Write the structure tokens for this entry.
Amino acid sequence: MKPPGYMSVSSKNGRGTVHQAPGSIGDANTIQIFPPTTEYPDGYWRQFDSKGNPIDPSTGKQGIGPENHLVPLPPGFLK
């Protein structure tokens, strides 16, 4: 899921992993992967555009709410 050339670091809260394009600042050009939660039992991921806005990966456009930009991970992805 990490694009070639992206760097990986722990998320700010230490619970997930952030993959970011070199030279990007803040949330710009990132893919964030998080562990299971009550709502997302297999974990979830989200993607941010070049301006740091969360996007709906199916459209590449800004999502309006979490239901439009938090994507459940498939079972077993994080194992």
Observations:
- The chain has a mean pLDDT of 89.
- Residues 66-69 form the longest helix (4 residues).
- Residues 25 and 53 are 12 Å apart (CA to CA).
- The two ends are 14 Å apart (CA to CA).
